[in-house]
């Protein structure tokens, strides 16, 4: 097999829509990174995504007048009956079905022996399988960045969601299923890029190769002047994300009732899930702190960064997520972050080496646990992190390309 023929890189990314503001668009970041590499390395790029992303991706690339002569964008055909899976509650099921159909879509445009490197970069969850495993053999297969870790006990902190017992049990079950699924897929690829040392250790204990590499988009650092923070009086707190129980914004609102944060104010950027109201506003009124809580609704990324620059602490107590873009943005601004220890948010904070405070397990019965963590974070220096650069993605992908070529030549 000549090196000239094996010059195809396959990227599978279920969501690759540049118009979306959330982590799944990490696929867009990888696609544009590989377009730059392709021009330098004489590569052909095949990108596989869902049909919605395919249309949006091509529209965006054309509007930016990018060279797409080396790019083929394909999407598995969507049967009319499968359109029901587009409901936001069925996204993971839609992803699984898409993964089943992806190998056939790749076979239509490339033979197995033409593929040098196959990359699956979609979704920050180890529950979802990688549809590149059929390429094992001559191609180097790399899964990730993927993975998420959570804390079931996040739902035991007061005030609790009405269905907190259900959420607690689901999280415990998800942890078990995630471990099994991650190990199963890890054994079927050559390398897994995972979001945290916890996940890497799980895979490596099963004999799989893993490297810690959080699923966080490139972010430009923003230097901010140091501001004095004394005893918590007048602190400006910030929460960012969808107003859903998973994010546990209730805990930030309740923390305002503690004496140490009696003068603190909280800004919340985000919107409720489709069809639901703002239950957090009702909670703020019930706790008597509504005059110190501001709701911005959904705002663009520029506004989020501006709010981070004005805040003193980001409170991000998500029960579970992968490579948190919100935490990544906060570390780039230098904003100290409060997280639950052992979660995906904690992994991003640790990877960035940034300021923040972690709430340890076993503190659900301590009414001051969140307020104390906020105070600890507020006393730390405001040091912008340079971790999330464009070069971070490019350097890793070029290293994987070199590894794939060495494997082919061996």
From TrEMBL:
The enzyme's E.C. designation: 2.4.-.-
Enzyme class: transferase
Keyword vocabulary terms for this entry: Glycosyltransferase, Transferase
GO molecular-function terms, A-Z: glycosyltransferase activity
Ranges for domain Glycosyl transferase family: 228-386
Classification via SUPFAM superfamilies: UDP-Glycosyltransferase/glycogen phosphorylase
Residue stretches spanning the membrane: none
Name listed for the protein in its UniProt record: Glycosyltransferase
Organism, scientific name: Curtobacterium subtropicum
């Amino acid at each position: 097999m000549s090196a000239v023929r094996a010059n195809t890189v396959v990227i599978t990314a279920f969501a690759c829509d540049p118009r979306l503001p959330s982590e799944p668009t990490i696929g867009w970041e990888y696609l544009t990174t590989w377009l730059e590499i392709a021009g330098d390395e004489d590569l052909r790029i095949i990108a596989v995504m869902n049909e919605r992303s395919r249309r949006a991706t091509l529209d965006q690339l054309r509007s930016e007048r990018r060279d797409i002569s080396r790019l083929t964008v394909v999407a598995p055909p969507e049967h009319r009956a499968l359109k029901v899976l587009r409901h936001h509650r069925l996204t993971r099921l839609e992803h699984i079905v898409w993964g089943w159909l992806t190998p056939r879509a790749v076979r239509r445009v490339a033979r197995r022996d033409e593929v040098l490197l196959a990359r699956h970069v979609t979704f920050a969850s180890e529950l979802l399988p990688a549809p590149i495993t059929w390429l094992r053999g001559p191609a180097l297969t790399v899964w990730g960045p993927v993975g998420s870790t959570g804390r079931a006990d996040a739902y035991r902190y007061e005030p609790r969601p009405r269905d907190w017992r259900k959420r607690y049990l689901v999280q415990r079950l998800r942890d078990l299923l995630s471990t099994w699924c991650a190990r199963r897929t890890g054994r079927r690829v050559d390398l897994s890029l995972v979001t945290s040392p916890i996940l890497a250790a799980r895979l490596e204990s099963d004999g799989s190769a893993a490297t810690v590499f959080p699923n966080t988009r490139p972010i430009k650092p923003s230097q901010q002047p140091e501001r004095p923070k004394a005893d918590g009086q007048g602190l400006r707190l910030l929460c960012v994300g969808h107003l859903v129980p998973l994010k546990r914004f209730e805990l930030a609102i309740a923390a305002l009732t503690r004496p140490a944060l009696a003068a603190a104010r909280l800004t919340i950027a985000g919107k409720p899930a489709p069809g639901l109201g703002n239950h957090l506003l009702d909670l703020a009124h019930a706790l008597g702190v509504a005059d110190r809580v501001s709701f911005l609704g959904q705002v663009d990324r520029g506004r989020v960064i501006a709010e981070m620059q004005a805040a003193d602490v980001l409170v991000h107590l998500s029960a579970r997520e992968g490579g948190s873009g919100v935490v990544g943005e906060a570390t780039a601004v230098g904003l100290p972050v409060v997280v639950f220890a052992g979660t995906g948010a904690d992994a991003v904070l640790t990877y960035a080496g940034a300021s923040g405070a972690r709430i340890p397990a076993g503190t659900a019965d301590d009414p001051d646990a969140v307020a104390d963590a906020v105070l600890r974070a507020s006393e730390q220096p405001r040091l912008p992190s340079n971790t999330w650069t464009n070069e971070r993605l490019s350097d890793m992908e070029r290293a994987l390309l070199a590894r794939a070529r060495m494997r082919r030549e061996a």
